[in-house]
UniProtKB/TrEMBL annotation:
PROSITE patterns linked: RADICAL_SAM (PS51918)
InterPro entries in the record: Coproporphyrinogen-III_oxidase, Elp3/MiaA/NifB-like_rSAM, HemN_C, HemW-like, rSAM, rSAM_horseshoe, rSAM_sf
Record keyword Cell inner membrane present: no
Function in brief: Probably acts as a heme chaperone, transferring heme to an unknown acceptor. Binds one molecule of heme per monomer, possibly covalently. Binds 1 [4Fe-4S] cluster. The cluster is coordinated with 3 cysteines and an exchangeable S-adenosyl-L-methionine.
Localization: Cytoplasm
Protein name per its UniProtKB record: Heme chaperone HemW
Length: 375
């Protein structure tokens, strides 16, 4: 099953914590779309004969591109590539850009899932994050989107400087009360070169408190699962039947083709698995969209196994015990000892032949995963 990701690297302004590849302002949107269409044309053959199961417009803020440009791309793509009848077509959007009539146009084009960058319902948190919408706007837009689309997701961020448990609890309850189909919960991290990092270095605010974030994460898991959301990936919760198909596909390492600057691709064919990344430069991308990537690299069996273990352990369904036993067949006793140790610590469980991290285990997923990677 193949998936398609389209990276639209524009935002009105950069949020204080964000280090994604993007450009503030939309001055280059038109030449970017011309380049995107050229890259898409040049790479149509990579999609093969299998219908595409999902298309994800990510960014950046793809909703800034507007229905006319997204429609132009979808017209080209759907004319040349078979898209499954029930394909998930997601648009990431920010509340301040979601005017109802514009979103109706997106829906007419075939967008059937909206992922809204709400982040918080607290004015103080939104200001600290450098977001442009207000809590009222977030609520109103969420309600409108739920009226328009049958599949709506919202993002929340936890651990903003000076956040306390009451504030986080209020965010969770506000999100739950809106009844979205999907919620992503991210812990704030301080990335190099961001405004947030500079503010912390200058002593203007405190960095995220890991102890608080751990407690807040466990509260999120408890409340969201109580409300019927399935915790299907370390940061993602969905009502049954509403897992993100694009993200699930990429976590399960199904083939995906990334278009646009900095987008990644994983292809599988008779010769093995190949990966490539597009250049993270808008200028280079616009000037040579046919030549936007680093070129394909064939993954070695060890690289494939490493990715599989790394990604599977972040999923609610975990990884087959047998797969770990094959990977570590030279040190079966060591594996048994490690799994027992992590189980005794309450970090993982083995059920129906699968090794799965517990909510507490997800807090240490990097360490546990590193330990269980092929040596
Ligand atoms: S809206 Fe999202 S992608 Fe854009 S700057 Fe903010 S966090 Fe980054």
């Amino acid at each position: 099953m193949a998936h398609c990701y389209v990276h639209i690297p524009f935002c009105r302004e950069r949020c204080s914590y964000c280090d994604f590849f993007l450009v503030p302002g939309t001055r280059l949107m038109e030449p970017f779309f011309d380049a995107l269409l050229q890259e898409t044309e040049a790479r149509l053959c990579e999609f093969g004969s299998e219908p595409v199961a999902s298309i994800h417009f990510g960014g950046g803020t793809p909703s800034l591109a507007g229905p006319r440009r997204i429609g132009r791309w979808l017209a080209l793509f759907s004319d040349r590539v078979e898209i499954k009848g029930d394909a998930e077509i997601t648009l990431e959007a920010n509340p301040e850009d979601c005017r109802k009539h514009v979103m109706e146009e997106f829906r007419t084009l075939g967008i059937n899932r909206v992922s809204l960058g709400v982040q918080s319902f607290s004015g103080r948190k939104l200001e600290r994050l450098g977001r442009k919408h207000t809590p009222d706007e977030a609520c109103q837009v969420m309600q409108e989107m739920l009226g328009l689309f049958g599949n709506v997701s919202l993002d929340l961020i936890c651990g903003v400087p000076d956040e306390d448990m009451d504030e986080w609890h209020a965010d969770l309850e506000a999100a739950i009360s809106l009844q979205p189909h999907h919620i992503s919960v991210y812990m704030l991290t301080v990335e190099a070169g961001t405004k947030l990092q500079r503010e912390i270095h200058r002593g203007r605010c405190a960095g995220p408190d890991e102890g608080f974030q751990a407690e807040a994460y466990l509260l999120a898991v408890e409340r969201l699962t109580q409300e019927g959301f399935m915790h299907y990936e370390v940061s993602n919760f969905a009502r049954p039947g509403y897992f993100s198909r694009y993200n699930s596909g990429s976590w399960r390492r199904e083939p995906y083709i990334g278009l646009g600057p900095s987008a990644h691709t994983l292809l599988k064919d008779g010769s093995g698995e190949r990966r490539k990344a597009n250049v993270a430069s808008l200028v280079r991308y616009i000037s040579a969209p046919y030549d936007a990537s680093t070129g394909y690299e064939l993954l070695t069996p060890e690289e494939r196994q490493t990715e599989e273990v790394f990604l599977s352990l972040r999923l609610g369904q975990g990884i087959a015990l047998q797969q770990l036993q094959v990977i570590h067949r030279q040190r079966a006793q060591w594996l048994e000892g490690m799994l027992e140790k992590f189980m005794l610590e309450g970090f993982l469980e083995i059920r129906r032949g699968r090794v799965r991290l517990t909510p507490r285990g997800f807090l240490f997923s990097d360490h546990i995963t590193q330990t269980l990677l092929p040596s």
